[in-house]
Each structure stands twice: as structure tokens, then as C-alpha cells.
Amino acid sequence: MKWMLTIALILSSVIYCPAKVTAQTQQPATTKQPVQPTKDKTSPQQRTSRPVFVFPKTPTRLSPVSGRRAGMGSRDNCPTVPTALTALVPLREEQKVSKQTDKPILGIVEGLTTSEQPTFWFYVPYTNDLTASAEFILQDSAGNDIYRNAIALPPKPGIIGVSLSSNASLQVGKTYRWYLKVRCNQQQTASVPIYVEGDIQRVNLDSRVVQQLEAAVDPRQKATIYAANGIWFDSLTMLAQMRQKNFNDASVAEDWQSLLRSVNLDNIATAPLVK
Fold first, then answer.
1. Which domains occur in the chain, in start order?
2. Alpha-carbon distance 141 to 174, whole Å?
3. I want to staple 235 with a disulfide (CB 3.0 to 4.6 A). Which of 29, 121, 153, 226 is the partner?
């Protein structure tokens, strides 16, 4: 009997052990947790987005006088052009004075700057092969000239920049009126030129915007910040300078076009910058 009991114990252990091993090997494998996406730790100021101009809430209006962003199509013996003389400035509260194609659209033409000597930008369709002249004028709120200078017409239609000289400076909080006038009939000084006009005011930035600009390392980011806070001239000039230095950079060109299209200047968004 003892030997039968021994054999039974041996057989039971052999049967039990493989079953235990089999049970262990058939345990389901641990399911791998899906990899969580890495959170973008980049600050909002560090993300580069296309610049879009946002009209500032204040001042609501720099002056009660309407401006003129686009000049007449033809006047003063100037040739007819497909795209009129145009100031690169925001226009709001548009007032269509006529359905005729050669009549301009009047409205509030104005922009802000933080610069003491900002640069003004214009699309000029008239070229230096014409017997024409151009003049830029800047006046204070009383109508006194603080800067007046002849402007050379470009060799081909395009966008030009007009910068103030060192002896003409804008003061913070004051509104100034600017004009760009083109005369094609220089023999008749009493003739009305083709012109554009608007207002500019120099302002100080609040501390929040200053911190955003200090945190931005890319000039494109700074241009976007200026545009989002209604500082038109600074944003436009920064992008113009980048375009002049990197004229083959498609991303800079897209930023420039985004800014112009945000103020309905689609018709000159792709116009070249000329010296």
C-alpha cells in the first residue's frame, strides 16, 4: 500500500506543476499605455502667427477730419493707372462719395506709432520717366508744416517708404496730418494734384505690451504684437525692413500680405517694395 501511495503522490505532483506553469505563461501581457502627447510649453508670445491689425479702442478718432487713403485714378494730366496712389494705412468708417470709379473713398485714415521719427509707406503707380513730381508734407494740429520734402518717383510702380529727417520729431499724445501729393502738370501750380492724406499719433506702450515685446525674440513676433495692439506704423515698418533684407523669404512675404489684407489692402498686398 505504501508504494501505491508514493506513486500516487508522484503522479499528482507531475500533473500539478505543468498546469501551474501553463497557467502562469498564459497570463495576458500587460497592455502598454498610449504615449501621451507632449504639451507645447511654448508661451503665447513665442508662437509665431500671421500679423493681423486690430483697431485700438482708444483713441476712438485722432481728428474730426476725414482722410483719403487712395488718390484719384487720373487728374492733373497724370496717366490713367490700374491701381491708384495708395497710402498703406488703415481706413475705417468708410463713406463712398460716388459710384464713379475715379472718385476716392473717404473715411478715417489714421494710425499709431511709438516712434519719434516713423516711416510712412505708399504705393506709387507713377514712375520717374514721367514729367511729374511728388511731395510729402507733415503738419501739426494747427496746420503748420513741420516737415516738407520732395520725393523721387520710383523706377517702376511699387511701394516706397518716406522717413522723417532728424529735425522733425513727433511728440507723444499729439496728432499730426500727413500728405503725399503727386503733380503731373508742373506748369500749372494752381492745379489740384493727386494726393492721399491721413493722421498719425505717437503713443507710449502700456506695460503689458512692453513685456510681450521683451519676451519676443523674433522680429516677426514683435510685428504681430504691434499689429494686435493697434500700433500700425511700427508693425508695417518692421515687416517692410524684413522684406527688404529677406526678399526671398516666403514666410516674411506672407506676414506682410496678412497685415495688408487685414485692413483691406488686398490690391497692393503683393506689390513690390522699391527704393
1. 67-268 (2.60.40.1220)
2. 8
3. 226
